[in-house]
Amino acid sequence: MAKFYQQSLAERHATLIAEQRLTAAQIEQLKAAAIIAPEVADSMIENQIGQFPLPLGLSFNFLIDETSYVVPMVTEEPSVIAASSNAAKIVQANGGFTTTIQERAMIGQLIFTDVSDYEAAILLVQEKEAALIEIANAAQPSLVKRGGGLRRIETRIITDDDHQPAYFTVHLVVDVQEAMGANMMNTILEATATPLKEWLDSAVLMQILSNFADTSLVTATCRIEPHTLTTTRFEGEWLAKRIAEATRYAHLDPYRAATHNKGIMNGVDAVVLASGNDTRAIEAGAHAFAVRDGRYRGLSDWKVAENGDLVGQLTLPLPVGSVGGAISVLPLAQLTQQILGISTANKLARVIVSVGLAQNLAALKALVSEGIQKGHMSLQVKSLALSAGATESELPLVVAALLENKQLNLENAHTIIAQLRQN
Ligand code: NDP
C-alpha cells in the first residue's frame, strides 16, 4: 500500500474504511460536503480527504466612506453576525465609518549573523540600495509592470536581553499591489540574500516576510451621538461613558485586552476567511500590533468627546489581497467578492477594519450593560438544541422550552428532547 500522501483520494477513503476510522456512509458524507474540485483541493493541502464547510452569512448596514456594503462572513460562532449588523446600524445612523490607509506594503526580513561592524553594515546597505532595488525588482518583473516593487530598505540592529547587538536585519519594504504578497516577497528575499550576504561578508540566518505588517495599517473611525445608543433599559449617555471606560481598562490589563481583541477578531477573521485570505497572517499581525509598545493592549479606542459624542477608532495591520494565494482558487471566494461588490485589496481592508470596530462596539455595549450572555445565549440556543440531537421538527419546540425554563445547558436540552419523545 502506498503511503497516505501518495494515495489518490479514492485510495485514502478506502484506507480510512479499512482502518475502521470511518464507515462507508461517513465517506459519502465527506464526498457530499465537497465543492472544490478534488484535484484542486489536493493541490492546496497535503493528505486531503475532504472539505470542511463552515456557515457563510451576511452582515448588513455597513456604511463605509459613504458607500453601503453587504459583508459576507464565515464563522462557526453564533451571534457574531447579528452583533456586527446591529452595531453597524447604529454607526450608519450616525453617518457611517470613515477609513484611512497610510500605506499598503509588505515587509521582508533578511536576518544576518556574524556581523562584526554594525555601523559599517548600515552604511554598506545604504550604498547598495540602488543595486538591491534592481535585483529585487528583476526577481518579480510582473509586479514592477503592475506598478509595484521594492520601495525602500531599512536596517535594524537587534539586541539581546543584555542590550548587546546580536543580529543585523535588513527590511525590504515591497509594494505588492493587489496580492497579499507572502510568496512574492519570499522570492524577492531569496534573490537579494546572496549578494547582500557577500557584500556584508556575513551569514544569513533566514529570509522571510514579517507578519507584523505595520506598513499596511488601516484605520476606521466613527462618531456616535449617545442618544442613538439608548435602549429600553439603558440610557445612551451612560452607555457611552461605560464603553469608553471599558476601552481604558482593556488598554491597561492584558487579561481583558486578549478578550477585547478576540471580540474584534471575531468579525475580522470572519471577513478575512470569507474573502479567501490568510486568517493566521492577519491574527499574527494584529496581536503583534497590540503589543507594539511592550504591553499587550486592547486594539480599539473609544472616547467620549467634549460634545458628548462617543468616538471610536480601530487601527489594524491588514495585508489582505484581492488576488493570489487561495483567493483565485476557492470558488466561494469569488462569490463573496461579488456580494461585497469590491475587487481591490484596499477596499477590502477598509471593510474589514470597519467590521472589527462594529464587532467591538457590539461586544462592549452588551458587556457594560446587560452582559453578553443574554444576547449570546439566546442565539446559541439553536446550536445547543442541535448538539443535543434535536431533529428539524423538534428544533422549534426544544428552543422554546429552553428559552422558557432558562437553563441553557446541554443536560437540560437532552432532558427536554427525551420528554418530547416520550409524549
Ligand atoms: P501568490 O503566490 O499567489 O502571488 C500573487 C499572484 O497574483 C501572482 O501570480 C501574480 O501574478 C498574481 N496577480 C494578478 N494580478 C495581480 C495584481 N494586480 N497585483 C499583484 N499580483 C497579481 O500569492 P502571494 O504572494 O500574495 O502570497 C499569498 C499566499 O502566501 C497566501 O496563501 C499565504 O497563506 C501564503 N503564505 C503566507 C506566509 C505568511 O503569512 N507568513 C508565508 C508563506 C506563504 P504574477 O505572477 O504575474 O505576478
UniProtKB/TrEMBL annotation:
UniProtKB keywords: NAD, Oxidoreductase
Q: EC number(s) in its UniProt entry?
A: 1.1.1.88
Q: Which SUPFAM superfamilies match?
A: NAD-binding domain of HMG-CoA reductase, Substrate-binding domain of HMG-CoA reductase
Which BP terms in the Gene Ontology apply to this protein?
A: coenzyme A metabolic process
| Presence of keyword Lyase | no
| Primary enzyme class | oxidoreductase
Task: Name a Pfam family for this protein.
Answer: HMG-CoA_red
Gene Ontology molecular function terms on file: hydroxymethylglutaryl-CoA reductase (NADH) activity; hydroxymethylglutaryl-CoA reductase (NADPH) activity
- Pathway listed for it? Metabolic intermediate metabolism; (R)-mevalonate degradation; (S)-3-hydroxy-3-methylglutaryl-CoA from (R)-mevalonate: step 1/1
Give the reactions, separated by semicolons, that this protein catalyses.
(R)-mevalonate + 2 NAD(+) + CoA = (3S)-3-hydroxy-3-methylglutaryl-CoA + 2 NADH + 2 H(+)
Looking up NCBIfam families in the UniProt record yields:
HMG_CoA_R_NAD (TIGR00532)
PANTHER family in the record:
3-HYDROXY-3-METHYLGLUTARYL-COENZYME A REDUCTASE (PTHR10572)
- Family per similarity comment: Belongs to the HMG-CoA reductase family.
Q: What is this protein called?
A: 3-hydroxy-3-methylglutaryl coenzyme A reductase
The major lineage groups are: Bacteria, Bacillati, Bacillota, Bacilli, Bacillales
